[in-house]
Amino acid sequence: MNQPLHDRPADLPADLADATASQLLAGFSAGSITPVDAVEACLARIAATEPACNAIIALLDGPALAAAERSGQRWREGTAGPLEGVPYGLKDIIATAGVASTGGSSLYLDYVPTETAAHARRLADAGGILLAKLGTFEFACGGADNQAFGRVHNPWDLTRTTGGSSSGSGAAVAAGMLPLAIGTDTGGSIRIPAAYCGITGLKPTYGRVPRHGVMGLSWTLDHAGPMTRSAEDCALMLGVIAGHDERDATSSMRPVPDYLGALSQAVSGLKLARPRGWFEDCFHPAFAAVYEEAVAALGGLGIDVVDVEVPEVEVAAAAGWAICYAEMFSLHEGHIATIEERDTMGAGLLGAGPFVTANDYLRALRWRPAFQRSLAAALGDCAAFVVPGATTAPPVMGDMLVDTGTAVVDWLAVATRNHIPFNYAGLPGLCLPCGLADGLPVSLQLVGWPHDDATLLRIGAAYQAVTDHHRAKPPILSAVA
Amino acid sequence: MSGLAPGSGPSVELFAALAAYQGLTSLTEARLALAVASHRELATDLATLRAKPMAFLEPVPEPAQALRWLERGGDRP
């Protein structure tokens, strides 16, 4: 059971479900709390919020409590791993041996893998405790309406989507069901729900985290990465899951840096590049105003923000979509005969797949190095780009329309426009909550040089050290309190 | 695309025939309409992409070129 407050380290929250992974580890290390305390707090939070959020596909409470007992023993023996005793969740397109991995689809309800995904194995080997398999748009592209598991609801407004496709990961972390989750991102599927749910989400550099064991959507664009409540927790989690795996030939051979250690380096003197144009075109004024304050706060850290131009982003977005449609059609060719059993949005996207020609696909691949060079030229001596994480409020699930301030339009093209160009280029992107507009989260995104994920996390941690936006709690937690 | 103007897209009937040619024979009327709508959304992107000139006289080592650029850290100055 949870310990009395006076026995805890000063920065541990009253309810351990609100603690970050880093706070939990400090508490475990000090001996003031145990992994069983943490799992029980998460289970209590799940009991209170899951009926409204529907973030979880499979709750693994029994195995998690047993694992927490073993973790507690390892803390007592001095053999604790880097995530020892910390609960986490996995988007349910990630394979877990012996545990159903449904892809969020009625087509895979009974699929039980015999092998765990490479990065999920690393989380477990580091002492992390798998508490839940989490909701996802069907096969990471099916839309908010999921016929197998129902809609996932945004803890900030239950009528609105979390975005996706890592819908359960976004809602579960935001509601305090668990401090860490893995999401995947092909055109924004980590960063969109992070932005819509007010959490911190990192799409690492392409290849930084192996994709082995992840149901694919588009192998050129697919990434896996952390979704957490702080940049520090993203660094902690990335340090565990990053690194080459021989079962994914596209995973990077570069050594894994000390992401946590990098957080202590100063950010003063860094330069950020702000490309307006495409990235700020669909900005609702209320969200734009909060974003301006956030950019100003970065300036307060001694970071110089300079305007830059990124040419032909619209071509990059178009090329990204062409690749996504073509590779999705190839990956899902075995499901074409059962397309009527697919969720609506995914079936619509899959149905359009045949009309991306081989030449479209190859043209999109051929132009990718040119866009990469354009991004590098625009960055110049800057450490990263800063762009909005989302330019509107998340849509209400009844219509899935967003208000850009000048038009009310379908959400998908607006939500993905600041993300898919960076999936196409392979650059890392970190979304950080930066305030509220009309009671809903606003987010900024830092996009960095390839394999300099550490600088994004360092800037994110510095920003979160002087702001409280990442600690804001969604209204659903008022009822819990 | 059989002489279609970029961005215009095929008719529903032609769309259904082309989809069937690639194995998509099980679409109900509602799903077919959805797929056509998705394609029409995509058609603008495809037109943008198709309008981009591509060089002939240069090596095309894709996708290795993009991956190696990432592995080199983007040739950061």
What's the topology here?
The complex is a heterodimer of chains A (481) and B (77).
Chain A: H1 21-30, H2 35-53, E1 56-59, H3 61-77, E2 87-91, H4 118-125, E3 129-134, E4 153-154, E5 157-161, H5 167-174, E6 180-185, H6 191-197, E7 200-203, E8 223-228, H7 231-241, H8 259-262, E9 271-275, H9 285-300, E10 304-308, H10 313-331, H11 344-352, H12 358-379, E11 384-388, E12 401-403, E13 408-410, H13 411-416, H14 420-425, E14 429-437, E15 440-448, H15 453-466, H16 476-480
Parallel strand pairs in A: 2-3, 2-6, 9-10, 9-11
Antiparallel strand pairs in A: 1-3, 4-5, 6-8, 7-8, 7-14, 11-15, 12-13, 14-15
Helix pairs in contact in A: 2-3, 5-6, 7-15, 10-12
Chain B: H1 12-21, H2 29-50, H3 64-71
Describe what you observe in this structure:
- By secondary structure, chain A is an alpha/beta fold.
- In chain A, 38% of the residues lie in helices and 16% in strands.
- In chain A, helix 2 packs antiparallel against helix 3, helix 5 packs parallel to helix 6 and helix 7 packs antiparallel against helix 15.
- Chain B is elongated and about 55 Å long.
- The relative contact order of chain B is 0.12.
- Chains A and B meet through helix 10, helix 11 and helix 12 of A and helix 1, helix 2 and helix 3 of B.
The portion of residues assigned to helices of chain B is 40-55%
Specify the biggest β-sheet of chain A.
Answer: 11 strands, mixed
**Ends distance of chain A:** 18 Å
**Low-confidence regions of chain A:** 1-6
Q: Could you tell me the number of beta strands of chain B? A: 0
Approximately how much helix is present in the residues of chain A?
Answer: 25-40%
Q: How many strand elements of chain A?
A: 15
Quaternary organization: heterodimer
Q: Give the averaged pLDDT of chain B, no decimals.
A: 84
Shape of chain B: elongated
Any descriptors?
A: 481 residues, alpha/beta, two-stranded antiparallel sheet, 15 strands, 38% helix, B: 77 residues
